[in-house]
Structure prediction request, 533 residues.
Amino acid sequence: MELISKFFALLYPASLLFSIILVGIWHSFNFRQKKNILLNVLIFLAVISYFISFFSNYHLQFFMIAWFIRDLLIFIILTKLWHLYLRYKRSFIIGIFLIAIGIGFLFYRNGSLSFSKASPVNFASDNEAELLFEIKNKTQLSKVNELLSRFKPEILLAFPQVKDTLITELDNCYTIDIKDTSALNSLVDTLEKSGLTNWIEKNEVYTLSPIEKSGSDSIISNSYSGKTLNDPYIAKLWGFKYMEIDSLTGILKKRKPVKKAKIFILDTGVDSKHEDLADNYLSLSDKYDKDTDQHGTHCAGIACAVTNNNLGIASFNLTGEFTSITSITVLPGGSGTQESIIDGMILAADNGADVISMSLGGFSTDVRQKAYEKAIKYANDKGAIVVVAAGNENTNAKNVVPASCKGVITVSAVDENLQKAAFSNYVTDIEYKVSAPGVNIYSTIPLNQYKSMNGTSMATPYVAGLIGIMKSMEPNLTTEDVFRILISSGIDTKNTEQTGKFIQPLRAISNLNATNIKSKLKLFVRELLTFKP
Prediction:
């Protein structure tokens, strides 16, 4: 039966293509006023094969009408184009020539075409670079080198691995590394006055907050005691007592995901062999499958630990069918540059991330953060929701990046009493903000161990895990869609204005049907463009 299914899966596109080619040949014969009975028979057989394979692939469902109309339009357009070529060869060739010139111009302007690159699988950051800048025109790079020659800089393309260069200017970004850092201000002043750049930023270094190494492993009073989970440490997951997890389990057992959503953890790496992570882990590269600290593995467990396996802890991925986790190491040993973090965001977006979870950040000395915002937009445009930590300095998150960047969902931390954690930055001035548990959060660490940590870093993967479940059911949810659902379903904390609403997984998933017309239209278009097999 499986062999028959595979046969029809291959026959479907082949028969459609063959029908188009045969009709094209038939037009050619008619144009020369010739008849061929064998050709008519072949066209008939090809069309019959198409209909049989079409129904075998799609079966009887309402949306098959839209798929059939799509195929019919492809057939009509391509055969009409061939008919036009036969009638107006010279004009048609000129038109093709002009299109080729247009594509050539795009290649010249962007340095590449989005469809001309293979999927990137790696990146290398210049950890010594002091600056990031965006050049207005790549052809003027020699002028930049000449202008800055007295500083003896090393200027390198910052993000050469960007796949879809037609939707971003990230491929116009460069790094600058100079040995004499005392001349940095003079270099920036020279470059700004040149008019050759759109913006210049410091390539800032971010490190993990010391508060995140602490936490109590003891079970709090009034802890969670679920009836549907058999994971031995669930009593330590105090946040679950506010989240109707038993009812959520029942809902998820009844629902099937449209896809398994990919949650990318951009952190210190993840111990991919951990007993409570391995079955939900999807590797991108061996180099990211070990933790250079403990932080990344801890965040991964919160986002997507294997649940109901009689081991360790649990996550919102209660049946194991909805989400997977993938690691990209952007903070080796606990620190990394802005460039390396953006490199990781690009890599995640280009490899199909549905959610990018970033439990990182710090104060910014730049008024603007253009590079971050371009990377966030690139990820959003490719379908990923970016979730970031608010920070742990007990100050306004608007001074922290990427928490204050446009297009992210920023997460603050609350304690067991739904009070803003003493260390958590407040998110009053942030557009998209929510809160989640961030004090004494028990989760996975390398070598099949477990411990508690504190921080908005721990709150962030709770939100990322929930959004992953949501995206598995409605893949075309945008950041705006997700935020609207999270705040409409969330509950108040003791400091809601400072923390944002506290997430409620059961209500959020129950509210998915309330997605707006724009989101439903995107889902329709996605289905329409799904060319099976």
In short: Residues 434 and 501 are 5 Å apart (CA to CA).
